[in-house]
């Protein structure tokens, strides 16, 4: 009798646990997994909205993208942002965290707040701030003319090379402090005695940094790396609001181009846009996997 | 050690830190300047902004009049606040319940499900855009707050954050509460919720900020002036042929002000929030 009652209670508790996690789990299935499957099915079709048909052959959308110059450009751009911006940002973030973790440094809190501050800026806001700063009659041109480095206004956002540089600078500005916070949290977990021991052994600052700090921070580096790769592969707001992909699509990102193909300007092509999105998905998954493996095996 | 030699040691350490100070001052300046400039530009005429003025002017009121005459500023501010607050409440409730369930009632099945849910982190937003848009429009939810919040109510990140932090919730408290006759849901509201306040605060700051910043999804499902958000409003402002820089920067300022205030008031919670799931 007693046993039975106990079992009933346990079963009740067990059921309660499932009830608590059900709404969130259901929402993730309906709002992430189901649409993902739907997107894959769409990628095998052509047309839009109500009148979508199976593509002939099924791989039509996938074959089309290789001949799509704009998509290839968008992929190249996205990778360029990734390869240049992410390493610079993470190295800078570790360096700043290391400097701010020094107990002898004064005004640590102030420096930390100021460097962290860009994260408080809304995404579209900062894109527009940089767009205005680097516009033809923007402050950057006025300043460079003032100190005599340039004579004529430079059309920063009107040329492919400089426009890409502005996007990278803006990204660095917005996200370096964000990543620094992760490294600061990571550094606080490292015992101070480890450093003291290194000091006694006479290791130089750089040596301690490379031989102690970096290895101990590896899990944080892997995590911020995955987050940054994921974020960069899905760059959208900056491409839309800073350069609008221009001049003539030379700075456009993959997500921006896919959006334009799905619901943006011009002809909507759900099937093709979905096929392109599958590429982003595979890239995110593969790069996250590589990052995790690299982070694991250096031991 | 005498006082003099102590001072000497301190000044020696500080002297060695001079390059660090210089570097940090430069980085701090670069970090703050664009925001400082946004504030000044909002008080200047478009021409003054273009001429490179970097000090406060007297045109703030004029910019404000122009801005409110051309744009539904307060409507968009109100919308953004409303959506972000509803989103925050819904997300916190759903994700904290899940985190509580996953951690404190955990067994093999739930752990496996949790692992599956984490895969949702890899799903790119552009991929789900069309199916979600179709779903929302079939449900006749376009241009409603539900369309805005529904894809973001449950996120793996938030569930993980609550789950990790639930480890601090003592299992003894659960047992004691049960003996006191509290139901399972009673434990959640009466014991868990008050004890996890700091986690809720961090999660709230992050969710509010993300929701306020959201751009791609809102511009897809919220069409028209009466439902648009602040990021949408300022993005539209900058698309005209002749952009009034002073006015634009005032709009940008309005769009950033809530997040900047939240940042300064709740910086600790914000930092905890973004690193929250990595303990």
Characterization of the model:
The complex is a heterodimer of chains A (299) and B (279). By secondary structure, chain A is mainly α. Chain A is built from 13 helices and 2 strands; from the N terminus they run H-E-E-H-H-H-H-H-H-H-H-H-H-H-H. Chain B folds into 2 domains: 63 residues, no CATH class; 205 residues, MetI-like fold (Orthogonal Bundle). Chain B has 16 helices and no strands. Classes of the chains: A mainly alpha (299), B mainly alpha (279). Chains A and B meet through helix 1, helix 3, helix 4, helix 5 and helix 6 of A and helix 2, helix 5, helix 6, helix 7 and helix 11 of B.
Q: Which consecutive residue ranges of chain B, at least 5 long each, have pLDDT under 50?
A: none
Give the integer mean of the pLDDT values of chain A.
87
- Distance separating the two termini of chain B: 41 Å
Helix and strand sequence of chain A = HEEHHHHHHHHHHHH
Structural features:
heterodimer; A: 299 residues; mainly alpha; MetI-like fold; 13 helices; globular; B: 279 residues; 0% strand; flat
Spell out the blueprint of helices and strands:
The complex is a heterodimer of chains A (299) and B (279).
Chain A (H helix, E strand, L loop, with lengths): L1 H41 L2 E2 L6 E2 L5 H7 L2 H32 L7 H9 L6 H11 L5 H8 L13 H29 L3 H9 L4 H12 L1 H16 L3 H7 L10 H9 L7 H28 L2
Antiparallel strand pairs in A: 1-2
Chain B lengths: L2 H14 L1 H24 L4 H5 L9 H11 L2 H32 L3 H11 L6 H14 L6 H5 L6 H10 L5 H9 L4 H12 L1 H17 L2 H6 L8 H8 L7 H21 L1 H9 L4
Helix pairs in contact in B: 4-15, 5-9, 5-12, 12-16, 14-15
Summarize the structure.
The complex is a heterodimer of chains A (299) and B (279). Chain A has 299 residues and is mostly helical.
């Amino acid at each position: 009798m007693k046993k039975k009652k106990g079992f009933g209670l346990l079963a009740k508790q067990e059921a309660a646990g499932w009830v608590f996690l059900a709404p969130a789990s259901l929402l993730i299935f309906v709002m992430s997994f189901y649409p993902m499957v739907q997107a894959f099915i769409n990628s095998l079709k052509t047309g839009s909205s109500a009148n979508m048909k199976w593509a002939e052959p099924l791989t039509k959308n996938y074959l089309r993208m290789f001949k799509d110059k704009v998509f290839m450009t968008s992929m190249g751009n996205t990778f360029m942002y990734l390869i240049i911006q992410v390493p610079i940002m993470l190295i800078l973030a570790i360096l700043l965290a290391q400097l701010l973790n020094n107990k002898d440094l004064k005004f640590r809190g102030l420096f930390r707040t100021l460097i962290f501050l860009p994260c408080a800026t809304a995404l579209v806001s900062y894109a527009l701030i940089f767009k205005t700063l680097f516009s033809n009659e923007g402050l950057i041109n006025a300043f460079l003319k003032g100190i005599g480095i340039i004579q004529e206004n430079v059309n920063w956002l009107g040329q492919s090379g400089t426009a890409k540089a502005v996007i990278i600078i803006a990204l660095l500005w917005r996200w370096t402090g964000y990543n620094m916070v992760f490294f600061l949290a990571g550094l606080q977990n490292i015992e101070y005695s480890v450093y003291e021991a290194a000091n006694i052994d006479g290791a130089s600052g750089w040596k301690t940094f490379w031989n102690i700090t970096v290895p101990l921070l590896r899990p944080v580096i892997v995590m911020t790396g995955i987050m940054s790769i994921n974020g960069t592969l899905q760059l959208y707001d900056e491409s839309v609001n800073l350069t609008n992909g221009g001049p003539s699509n030379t700075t456009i990102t993959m997500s921006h181009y896919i959006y334009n193909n799905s619901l943006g300007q011009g002809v909507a092509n759900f099937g093709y846009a979905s096929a392109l999105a599958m590429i982003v998905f595979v890239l995110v998954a593969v790069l996250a996997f590589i990052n995790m493996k690299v982070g694991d095996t250096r031991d | 050690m005498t006082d003099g030699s102590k001072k000497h040691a301190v000044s020696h350490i500080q002297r060695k830190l001079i390059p660090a100070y210089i570097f940090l001052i430069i980085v701090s300046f670069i970090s703050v300047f664009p925001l400082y400039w946004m504030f000044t530009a909002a008080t200047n005429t478009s021409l003054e902004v273009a001429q490179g003025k970097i000090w406060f002017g007297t045109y703030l009121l004029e910019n404000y009049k122009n801005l409110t005459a051309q744009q539904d500023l307060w409507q968009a501010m109100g919308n953004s606040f409303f959506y972000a607050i509803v989103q925050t409440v819904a997300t916190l409730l759903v994700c904290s319940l899940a985190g509580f369930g996953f951690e404190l009632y955990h067994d093999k099945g739930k752990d496996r499900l949790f692992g599956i849910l984490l895969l949702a982190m890899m799903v790119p937003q552009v991929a789900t855009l069309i199916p979600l848009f179709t779903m929302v429009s079939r449900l006749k939810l376009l241009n409603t707050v539900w369309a805005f919040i529904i894809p973001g109510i449950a996120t793996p990140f938030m569930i993980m954050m609550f789950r990790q932090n639930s480890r601090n919730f003592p299992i003894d408290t659960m047992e004691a509460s049960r003996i006191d006759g509290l139901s399972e849901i009673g434990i959640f509201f009466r014991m868990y919720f008050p004890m996890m306040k700091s986690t809720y605060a961090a999660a709230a700051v992050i969710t509010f900020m993300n929701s306020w910043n959201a751009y791609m999804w809102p511009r897809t499902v919220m069409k028209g002036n009466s439902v648009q958000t602040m990021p949408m409003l300022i993005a539209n402002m900058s698309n005209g042929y002749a952009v009034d820089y002073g006015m634009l920067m005032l709009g940008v300022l309005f769009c950033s002000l809530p997040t900047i205030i939240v940042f300064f008031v709740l910086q600790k919670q914000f930092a905890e929030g973004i690193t929250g799931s990595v303990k």
